[in-house]
Automatic annotation (TrEMBL), chain A:
Top-level taxonomy: Bacteria, Bacillati, Actinomycetota, Actinomycetes, Micrococcales
InterPro entries the UniProt entry points to: MetI-like (IPR000515), MetI-like_sf (IPR035906)
Keywords from the named record: Cell inner membrane, Cell membrane, Membrane, Transmembrane, Transmembrane helix, Transport
Keyword Cell inner membrane: yes
Superkingdom of origin organism: Bacteria
Protein's name according to its UniProt entry: Putative spermidine/putrescine transport system permease protein
Topological type in the membrane: Multi-pass membrane protein
One Gene Ontology biological process: transmembrane transport
Ranges of compositional bias, category Basic and acidic residues: 14-23
Keyword Metal-binding: no
TrEMBL record, chain B:
Membrane-protein topology: Multi-pass membrane protein
Protein name, as recorded: Carbohydrate ABC transporter membrane protein 1 (CUT1 family)
Biological processes annotated in GO: transmembrane transport
Domain ABC transmembrane type-1 as annotated: residue spans: 71-278
Originating organism: Salinibacterium amurskyense
Subcellular location as annotated: Cell membrane; Membrane
Family listed: Belongs to the binding-protein-dependent transport system permease family.
PROSITE patterns with a match to the protein in the record: ABC_TM1
Domain of life: Bacteria
Keyword terms of this UniProt record: Membrane, Transmembrane, Transmembrane helix, Transport
Length: 295, 289
């Protein structure tokens, strides 16, 4: 019998690989709904879409409104007054500070979470349950209660406010990174590392060329969550930062507490909404790596 | 086993390796959580005064009427908004899992809502629901005739913001942890002839219930301890616990610090009770095992 490569349909194999269901993928419709059920399904879909989309509407409308007095349905004159006012409030600097803070928090919290998740998934850790509970506890802790206390400790220890903010936000982010990496490691196959080591790879080579590429999508998701923690924070930056660090949420809050700032608040809010959405688009495109693929 | 293939590693070394991997995360978390809550507790008991000598006292907890009003208000806001978020979140998750094109749209919008900072959510819900807001204009209602949704006695805008953000969070947690498992059971039930509602009641709900409970507990804890939404969209009196604590913390009076800390301690205890109840509920769920 002769063996020919034409028997192996690479395209088909890749298509099957592509169609294989991964954790987190949606299912497929089991049945076609008709009549009343179809109407109900479309109706509930429309309602849910409206529920999630409606709060974005004022941001778009107000961002480009120069004047929009009360009874009018749409802005009277369009323009960039809101943008000008936002820029005058220091929007650019605040945007830069927010971005830097969030990236630092993600860069620290992601490897810490991944390492902790790896240790927890191996089940060789003494007091594993206690460690899990401790690492998860910041999610459940009321931030203001911890911040009031830790603020005093940090002040007495002469920790610079910026470092204090990073420390507290990393702690708030660690539960998210640890938990999402634990989910990834639960599905992780140690066989790839073992095979590489058996074939003579050093442990460093196996880590950089085998292990990290395989968990890269999960790492990206964790880093995104940690980024969100830094990006969304208001209270920690306000209290622990003590005015040293002016991030985007801080100037949004100060603009929103004034009167007649609607368009500037909308522009600032929109600029706080867009960067995570761009990152989300990238992260959701990162699929689990296909180990058999030739590149 | 990796270890067996490469070289024999004694169990103690494996313990040590695991401990070394986990320590960089454990140390900062322990410092902030235990240090933060511990210091708050000491402050509330008068053991860490800004000036004067430390003296054990429960004076900070004395204004019990005020504390009770705030605690009840905080709890009501958290209960109502979490309940709405849980119902909407579960049905959103069902829509997403169903895999129709509509589910994909709802999933994308929900994911977008999750990324919005709560403060921005509060700002935009304010622009949407205030008496000259976008909704009032859409319905053509004059500002005087529009109900006081923002900063009104019903706390409508605050609850709406929490329900909006947390429903997206709950939906994505359910979808993320259970989609694959749910789909295979759902398909089996469908093949065996189970009708739509039977599948929803007997397959989807029991399987989703544990993650629904966990996500709701997280949302509840967050809502109870959150500050900025209630501060921006709420009434000035009565105040929720977090708003009162921050006002006292920033006030000029020196006796206010222990009172602010006392509110922090009360909030931690309330959260712990609710989370413990949720964990007990989780244990009783058979699907979790």
């Amino acid at each position: 019998m002769t063996l020919s490569t034409s028997n192996v349909d690479v395209d088909r194999a890749q298509r099957i690989q592509h169609e294989r269901r991964m954790p987190g993928d949606a299912g497929r419709p089991l049945s076609q709904s008709r009549g009343v059920m179809r109407t109900a399904r479309i109706g509930s879909t429309a309602l849910m879409s409206l529920w999630f989309a409606l709060p974005f509407l004022p941001l778009v409308l107000w961002s480009f409104a120069n004047s929009w007095s009360a009874p009018d349905l749409l802005p009277m004159t369009l323009g960039v007054d809101g943008l000008t006012a936002a820029l005058a409030n220091g929007a650019v600097a605040a945007f830069g500070d927010s971005l830097l803070l969030s990236l630092i928090v993600a860069a620290i919290a992601t490897p810490l979470g991944a390492m902790a998740a790896r240790a927890l998934s191996r089940r060789t850790l003494p007091f594993g349950r206690l460690v899990s509970v401790l690492l998860f506890s910041p999610v459940l802790l009321p931030p203001f209660a911890a911040v009031l206390g830790i603020n005093v400790v940090l002040l007495r220890a002469w920790v610079p406010p910026e470092l204090g903010v990073i420390l507290v936000l990393v702690v708030v982010a660690i539960p998210y990174t640890t938990f999402s990496m634990r989910v990834a490691y639960a599905a992780y196959d140690d066989g790839f590392d073992e095979a590489a080591r058996t074939l003579g790879a050093t442990s460093r080579f196996a880590l950089w060329r085998i292990h990290l590429p395989l968990i890269a999508p999960a790492l990206a998701r964790s880093a995104f969550l940690a980024f969100l923690v830094g990006w969304s924070d208001y209270l920690v930056t306000l209290v622990v930062g003590g005015g040293q660090l002016v991030t985007l949420p801080l100037i949004i809050a100060s603009s929103a507490s004034g009167i007649g700032n609607e368009s500037s608040v909308a522009v600032l809010s929109l600029s706080a909404v867009i960067p995570p959405l761009i990152l989300l688009a990238f992260v959701s495109r990162a699929r689990n790596l296909n180990p058999g693929k030739q590149s | 086993m990796t270890a067996a293939l490469t070289r024999p590693v004694r169990p103690r070394r494996r313990h040590l390796r695991a401990a070394l991997l986990v320590l960089p995360a454990v140390i900062p978390v322990a410092f902030v959580v235990i240090g933060g809550v511990g210091t708050t507790l000491l402050q509330s008991l008068g053991l860490m005064p800004l000036v004067g000598s430390a003296e054990l006292s429960t004076a900070a907890f004395n204004d019990s009427d005020e504390l009770l009003t705030s605690a009840l208000l905080s709890l009501s806001i958290a209960v109502v908004s979490t309940a709405i978020a849980a119902v909407i979140g579960f049905f959103t998750a069902v829509l997403i899992i169903s895999g129709n094109w509509g589910g994909r749209i709802v999933g994308a919008l929900g994911a977008a809502a999750v990324t919005v900072p709560h403060l921005v959510g509060a700002a935009t819900v304010g622009l949407l629901l205030s008496d000259s807001g976008v909704l009032a204009r859409l319905f053509g209602v004059a500002p005087d005739a529009w109900p006081a949704l923002v900063a009104g006695p019903t706390w409508f805008a605050v609850i709406a913001e929490y329900a909006w953000k947390e429903s997206a969070f709950i939906a994505l947690i359910i979808v993320g942890t259970l989609a694959t498992r749910i789909t295979s059971y759902d398909e089996t039930a469908a093949v065996l002839g189970a009708h739509r509602f039977a599948r929803l009641r007997l397959v989807l709900f029991p399987l989703a219930a544990p993650s629904l409970l966990v996500a709701s507990a997280i949302a509840f804890a967050y809502t109870l301890g959150s500050y900025e939404v209630a501060w921006m969209l709420g009434q000035t009196y009565p105040e929720p616990l977090s708003v009162m604590a921050l006002r006292l913390f920033n006030s000029a009076s020196l006796t206010a610090r222990p009172e602010a800390a006392a509110i922090g301690v009360i909030t931690v205890v309330l959260t712990a009770v609710v989370v413990a109840a949720a964990m007990l509920g989780l244990r009783r769920m058979r699907a979790w095992r």
